[in-house]
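call fold(seq) -> tokens
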Amino acid sequence: MTEHPLNCDNRTALAIYEGRQTQDRRPLTKRRVDCRNVAFEDLDFSMAHAVKDRLVVRGKDEQLHIVTSQVKVGDVVWIREAHRCMPEPYRRVIYRADFPNVTRMLQRDWQKSGLKWHASIHMPRKFCRSLRRVTRVWFERVRDITRSDIRAEGVTIPAHMSNEHSYKAAYTKAWRDLYDSIYPGAWDENGWVVCKEFEKVET
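ret:
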């Protein structure tokens, strides 16, 4: 079993802890995949096609190459999130996702106290409070996501948009807006993403 950090913004961390998010999609990058006998920069992903948990890609050498995810089925991801270390005498860690509705006044009070939130990427493993075991890994294009998978990404839509006529379109729009807010232009580019599904690990 291998462990991998999963950097999460406040929305993602909260959705995972509440059980609303059981899938995660990230753009295909060099650090997220394993390439066999070929450099990542020498692959042409425009004509790639997915086969189960693999991506078949043509390289500059005109040969087909197999690309797999760094994260494998059975691996464990540990949730990295924005956090803050409380000073003496408390000696504890608090997490930004636990305060989704913080008022501006409280934010100002925190800033005056000199306590700063640390970005998720700076969270050490010892502060992790939850693990997820990967049960499925696959590749797909950004727009190939289904409505059930959008829900598995923790995306919700307002009640007034859930009528029969606009239900599917509303989920698609909500996913597009969310994904583009994290990765600007990703929807129009419709590039490959590394997808994983996970379940909670009891600790």
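The chain has a mean pLDDT of 88.
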